[in-house]
Amino acid sequence: MKFIDEFRDPAKARALLASIGNLAAQLQRERPLHLMEVCGGHTHSIFRYGIEQVLPRNIEMVHGPGCPVCVLPMGRVDDCVALAEHPNVIFTTFGDAMRVPGSRKSLLQARAEGADVRMVYSPEDALKIARDNPGREVVFFALGFETTMPPTALTVLRAAEEGIENFSVFCNHITIIPTIKAILDSPDIRLDGFLGPGHVSMVIGSAPYEFICRHYRKPLVISGFEPLDILHSVYLLLKQITEGRCEVENQYRRVVPDAGNTAALEAVQRVFELREFFEWRGLGSIDHSGVRLRGAFARFDAEKRFSLPNLKIADPKSCQCGEVLKGAIKPWQCKVFGTACTPKTPLGSLMVSSEGACAAMHNYGRMDLIRARELQKERE
Amino acid sequence: MCVGIPGQIVEIVDAASDTAVVEICGVRRAVNIACVVSDERNHAQCVGEWVLIHVGFAMSRLDPLEAQKTLELLRELGEMEEKLSTIAEREGRASGQLEEESP
Ligand code: SF4
């Protein structure tokens, strides 16, 4: 397919790997280089194409928190279930969020018990359901980083324009920059560089990342999602590191303009404002990391329209999602990985979405390979 | 959710609501193109453009020139690598330890 197949060419991948190998051989350091991919889309590609296995030993990928489904705290899932169980509500959601476990049940279980939960592909589909069902309250479960924020904003603007009265948004949108900052400030993480999230960047542009280089002295390369994109970005990061440079580079120029997307940012500005803080699963509360609807759009805000339990609920004790999210341990090192926690029976949310590190590792069966490599390293 | 799909705009359905028909892997569906129209590029001028689609919205224009440039860079890198490894072989040195690692 156009714009995809060209970026999967094995010959070019081999050449890139050779270049990466040469640069990696020049690295003189005691511990392996830790590169974090922030975005869940990258995590998925890295596992799908087995990129970790072909990288030189002294380069390790750390799978970051960039999967919006995976960082959703249990209390928010419970709020969703409470909304969905409201007798007059049609609760609309992206498919990814259906199986995230809440403290009592997931949305899928709520639907099995009779709640009207419908999967939608786009927030506009949810608005259409509201138009078609004037007697019912339609709630759209909005989640995602800056990539999916503009579609939600444009849909709210459309609803306001049309004067639709029975549509509201349960807003769980989160922002990438405060999250990266929280990771960099966390004492138990040592990172050497970042693969920047390609699709968040097409909205926000490349300038917001500058502080990572300036203040934290870490390089960041905005990367596409095909195997060649990821290898190319790893190569560019290594080149910066071996040359002692530290910059924001844009590998994904075919999609990401340096200035971002003005129309999208404008819609986001009009509809959303920053929350003082937002709770993340495994990472705790992060200042200014979420947005809510502005007061002018209060009538489309499900949090204002309905009363919600809004409880803070601790993750099950056996879950180590937080440590995996921060890269402190590998998914398979979690005590319940593959036993009590599998994609069919997820305990933690990293096992739910295919963009979660645990599910990706489980689905693509790379566990044995990685474990073997890890054992070998211990022996060496 | 964060992985977008490329598609080609084939027809504008309704400019007022920014609705267009986009062909994605041979399947046609309605997509909102509000984020890719601009003062410089109106609805009609978007027809034929490739865009990246997330949750039913075209979020960015795919730039064929930039795609070409990236591929060209990768090709040059490959050629350089080949040259380096022939030189290295000629001098009887190993050209990197990577080969043994790939499956
Ligand atoms: S295996 Fe399950 S519980 Fe453990 S970190 Fe992964 S998702 Fe969380």
UniProtKB/TrEMBL annotation, chain A:
Name the source's superkingdom: Bacteria
Q: Which GO annotations describe the biological process of this protein?
A: protein maturation
Q: Which UniProt keywords apply?
A: Iron, Metal-binding
| GO MF term set | 4 iron, 4 sulfur cluster binding; carbon monoxide binding; iron ion binding
Could you confirm whether the keyword Iron appears in this record? yes
Q: Entry's InterPro entries?
A: Hyd_form_HypD, HypD_1, HypD_2_sf
Q: Which family does it belong to?
A: Belongs to the HypD family.
**NCBIfam families reported in the protein's UniProt record:** hypD
- The protein's name is Hydrogenase maturation factor
Q: Which organism is it from?
A: Microbulbifer rhizosphaerae
Its lineage opens with: Bacteria, Pseudomonadati, Pseudomonadota, Gammaproteobacteria, Cellvibrionales
UniProtKB/TrEMBL annotation, chain B:
Pfam families assigned: HupF_HypC
Under the heading Gene3D superfamilies, the entry gives: 2.30.30.140
Tell me, what is one Gene Ontology molecular-function annotation carried by this entry?
Answer: carbon dioxide binding
* Superkingdom per UniProt: Bacteria
* GO biological processes: protein maturation
Family recorded in the similarity comment:
Belongs to the HupF/HypC family.
According to UniProt, the name of this protein is Hydrogenase expression/formation protein HypC
